[in-house]
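Co-fold these.
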Amino acid sequence: MALLDTVVMRGLSSQGALSNEDKAFLLELELSPRHMSASEVLWLENGHADLFCVVKEGWGYSYRNLKNGSKQILKFYLPGDIIGIRDFGFTRRLASAAMINDGVIYPFSYQQLFELFGRSSLAVGIMATAMRQQALLSERLVYLGKYAAHEQLAHFLYEIYLRLKRIGAVEDNSFLMPLTQELIGDALGMSPVHVSRTFSMLREEGLVIRDRQRVKLPDPEALARLVEFNDSYIDEFLPHAFSELLRATP
Amino acid sequence: MALLDTVVMRGLSSQGALSNEDKAFLLELELSPRHMSASEVLWLENGHADLFCVVKEGWGYSYRNLKNGSKQILKFYLPGDIIGIRDFGFTRRLASAAMINDGVIYPFSYQQLFELFGRSSLAVGIMATAMRQQALLSERLVYLGKYAAHEQLAHFLYEIYLRLKRIGAVEDNSFLMPLTQELIGDALGMSPVHVSRTFSMLREEGLVIRDRQRVKLPDPEALARLVEFNDSYIDEFLPHAFSELLRATP
DNA sequence: TCGCTCACTTAACATAGGTTATGGATAGTG
DNA sequence: CACTATCCATAACCTATGTTAAGTGAGCGA
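Predicted complex below.
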């Protein structure tokens, strides 16, 4: 049951990739199942991230609450799915999760997951990188789903700005962006014409100045407020969580 | 350089989480850098997935070509980003990748990545699970970006159908779906009213029959054709790639 | 210098999908 | 058996964005 019942693990198992030792370890991880009732919340956005769950019965979903009162659902979880590895590598939850109908889940701590990696901080680093990438993807999804063009573009520019800043490629709030408006349109799911319109709009509001590939954000914070940018997913120094763990386990 | 220069690894390193042994290992992985010219393709969708890259200079992006001739960009890669772990766990590429301007990349084989995991097939399984989840997310993103409501809904239903079929919850092309149209709307980024409209449309075309929570797809393949469903990302038994590796490394 | 191409801007028009509203079926509850 | 709360269907209307088109300016090669 539990982890062994997961789609991927069943696959590994059926192909003889799992040793008896592996299986024993998995079974040892087995915790007491938890019975959940319909629409019960597993965790909330920004809550402390310390565990993930295998869904045994029932449907669940993860979602983000949006400023306009609606929500964007990131994924529905069916029996056999793992819910919550999305946040592995972060200290706080990037999204809320709840049940849809009654069900049963098996919780596992990230600590256990960490031990699975044999305390190799390299492997953990790779995993964290992957998770961070997924976080970016989720964030984009949220914006594609429910936000207007100018909010999407503002969000996009601010994300690029932050990412470039981390690697020291921003100077005086200005950076080089070698993208055509067509490429940006392909990323944001809007027509190149509308990208241009939207840039004009942001320019008129004094939020973005652009000359060819040079982009300047006169007031980055204003942009961030416009889109209520949640920078935890990009700015958090992921390894924090891991270095804690590394210290905890000799 | 190379992997050590990656955002996450730098973070680990600065916090003393990386032992000298770890660092030596990373340096050992160093391969000859590859100079890329503008718009040069790294790999194409469906190509064999065997390596990932660290971007040293230049910008790159990953994208999916759509049936209507346009493309959806999944992510832009800046210097220091890792490009291609998305496909770790799959035998074929889920998306194409190309450079935007001239640049330099460092390639690494999945084989090396695998060894990082200390040959623990459990850890690899967790990683694969996470990657599969990300693949689902990317697929949804593609649909949110560029497809019309009826295509999105058809795609959504077919995905649920496949996922339920894997766990034996489909009988006679019919399954239980405990979702309200409001929830579906929140997932697909459309209003509940339009979800209803779209269901009516699909019903009139004989593609979907629904009574309360009971959903029946009289001709699943017709649905799949409508959305040109690429089931490799959901149906492929990921562990294949790993069991090959496991066999290859004693 | 001329002329070509490419990226962008702006405008006019078309439409998919949002919004608001109303009514009908079903399930739950006292 | 009412009474109510959901969920869903359909309609009328509105708006953001797509589409098509025409014009501008920068870069670049002949």
